[in-house]
Design goal:
This protein is α+β, with helices and mostly antiparallel strands. It has three domains: 111 residues, Pleckstrin-homology domain (PH domain)/Phosphotyrosine-binding domain (PTB) (PH-domain like), CATH 2.30.29; 114 residues, Winged helix-like DNA-binding domain superfamily/Winged helix DNA-binding domain (Arc Repressor Mutant, subunit A, Orthogonal Bundle), CATH 1.10.10; 105 residues, Pleckstrin-homology domain (PH domain)/Phosphotyrosine-binding domain (PTB) (PH-domain like, Roll). 23% of the residues lie in helices and 33% in strands. It is built from eight helices and 19 strands. The protein has a seven-stranded antiparallel β-sheet. A hairpin with a 2-residue loop joins strand 3 and strand 4. The longest helix has 21 residues.
Length: 362
């Protein structure tokens, strides 16, 4: 029995890791145990049995969220006792926060077993003590948000087939407020965001944020949601005004995100297997996939799900059309134009969950 099996697996799955020497980003399979974080490489379609690295968790500090990597809002930082820094990216905010919380909890248990105090840098929880938000000066908060160097990044977002420039999402604001330590929890960040809305420092853009204004309570009008869009008030002109520009290519990216996750996809020409970030949307129903070594802004491929056929494949043997030494948990999607996509999920449950989610959109 391996050391990994003896110590027990707390959590495992794909994360994207930044290299230490060459600062590129690569998808790796991570396994969290009681005292260490191991990571492996996928060779072709199968997990490499050799460890590519390990991080000992005793004395580690977790920073989540960690927003110093532009266009990568789902990164958290793990700093070891010897001050080595590891930057890891998850496929969603929920996954990011769960990984960070589990790693921080493991580090704290080790610290407690050594007779020390709890490790610093634990991800914020809902039960964090109050920051006495009634003493916060909103004009100072918005000035910090507006700062060109350390403030909120103004980017383009898609909603209802239109691309809105010079704006930001609710989740980006919440992440930023937590990262800048202006609040102690995401709940406090929502309360502070709602106050900024109420006082007119920021304004809602698009349908989702406008609906929240009408329907939510006063302290919950601001949405911790990546599809709820906001901008600075009209008085802030020098950083650009919001423009809504209809775009044909934006229509397929404007649907509601139903599911995100890392899956392995077989290439159409070279038949090699690569880890891709898949995003399933509805209304309109599309499945897009992104290169996790880059970003989740521009998909490298995707297709409409209308008229598609999706089916699970038998893991006994290698199905027709599949190449390489595969891990298993295969499924296939055939588009309306008869293009065949072969995909592997990390587990049987994830395979079935993806199939069910896709079938609801076809």
């Amino acid at each position: 029995m391996s050391a990994e099996q003896r110590s027990g697996v707390v959590r495992e799955g794909f994360l994207v890791k930044r290299g230490h020497v060459v600062h590129n980003w690569k998808a790796r399979w991570f396994v969290l145990t009681a005292d260490k974080l191991l990571y492996y490489k996928y060779e072709g379609g199968r997990r490499d049995s050799c460890q590519r690295g390990r991080v000992m968790l005793r004395g580690c500090v977790v920073t989540c969220p960690f927003l110093e990597h532009e266009n990568r809002p789902l990164v958290f930082k793990l700093q070891t006792k010897s001050s080595v820094e590891h930057y890891l990216e998850a496929c969603s905010r929920e996954e990011r926060d769960e990984w960070a919380a589990d790693i921080a909890a493991a580090a704290e248990r080790l610290q407690a077993a050594d007779g020390g105090e709890a490790a610093a840098g634990r991800p914020d929880a809902t039960g964090s003590p109050s920051l006495m938000l009634h003493n916060v000066r909103l004009n100072q908060v918005v000035d910090s948000m507006y700062d060109v160097h350390s403030g909120i990044n103004l980017t383009s977002h898609v909603e209802q087939g239109s691309t809105y420039s010079n704006c930001f999402s609710g989740s980006e604001v919440v992440d930023w407020l937590v990262f800048m330590q202006l609040v102690l929890s995401r709940v406090e960040a929502v309360t502070l965001g709602s106050a900024l809305l109420e006082e007119g420092f920021v304004r809602p853009i698009g349908l989702r944020s406008l609906v929240a204004i009408r329907n939510a309570g006063l302290s919950e009008q601001f949405m911790d949601d990546s599809t709820a869009l906001y901008s600075f008030a009209e008085s802030f002109k020098k950083r650009g005004s919001v423009k809504a520009e209809p775009s044909l290519s934006a229509v397929e990216l404007s649907g509601k995100v139903m599911r995100r996750g890392y899956l392995l996809k077989q290439g159409h020409k070279r038949k090699n297997w690569k880890v891709r970030l898949f995003v399933l949307r509805s209304e309109p129903s599309y499945l897009h996939y992104y290169d996790p070594s880059k970003d989740d802004v521009s998909p490298v491929g995707g297709f409409c799900l209308r008229g598609c056929l999706v089916s699970a494949l038998d893991d006994n043997g290698v199905p027709t059309g599949v190449k390489g030494n595969i891990q298993g948990n295969l499924f296939k999607i055939i588009t309306q134009s008869d293009v065949h996509y072969f995909i592997q999920a990390p587990t049987h449950k994830e395979k079935m969950d993806w199939i069910d989610a896709i079938r609801q959109q076809v």
